[in-house]
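Appendix B. One record, verbatim.
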Amino acid sequence: MKLGLVFPGQGSQAVGMMSRYDGFPVVRDTFTEASATLGQDLWALVENGPDEALNQTVNTQPAMLAADIAVYRAWRAAGGAAPDILAGHSLGEYAALVAVGALAFADALPLVRFRAQAMQEAVPAGVGAMAAVMGLDAAGVTEACREAAQGQVVEPVNFNAPDQIVIAGHRDAVERAGTAAKARGAKRAVMLPVSAPFHSVLMQPAAERLAARLAELTIEPLAVPVIHNVDVSVAGSPGAIRAALAAQAANPVRWVETIQGFVARGVTHIVECGPGKVLTGLTKRIAPDLTALPLNDADAIAAAIDAIGKGR
């Protein structure tokens, strides 16, 4: 058995999501630590909302980082096995790096809040957009974007599954690309309720600001491999980790290739370390032969430990 852990990012949040982990004091303790670091009561935010506040990017990113790390700590406290390799989807990559000790939790929290602000400020409100295209392969989506650009930016930015790809760019171009994708056979093209065209080239100003901020932080070499979104590589050195995180802001999340990278490295089981099961569903679509398990509540943690065995 070879274990991979994956961490979800923005989009998996929901008010009340941490109440499903009764019996794990480490979950509340993690939020207490995060709240003290940021000077904001993140526990009240995730427990009580409102949705509008939790879904603001500057709140969502630190809240999801805290949630991912809280679930990871609950997994380990319950006897869950240490991972052989890790990855995270977009924001989740920061959680993966915290889990392996490359990035301190106390540094990562303000870092992801800064990241959220930089990404939000890179493009004026209302100018950018994102849409999920279902039922069309990467080549078809890419061609639809090329046809729809018409001097603007629209491009695939999240390769989530072979038939689920998120596009981003200028709002008008994204809408045109959705229409073009449906003309090529896509089942649906759904505009997403986000406030910026994340992971598109329009985020380059954010990537540059993030690079400058990362240069100020201590990052340790990887003790356990983490596959990076931007190039599906394992960057062991601190400098390479900084470069991968900065570039990630303005480049696509290559999730299909990431899961395929787990398979190529001999991974047999993937556990989703966070309050949801979106990545579990994607894993089953990308690599059906892998055993994919969520940790989206206390019972799921127990079931995953039963399936995999106690920690090593």
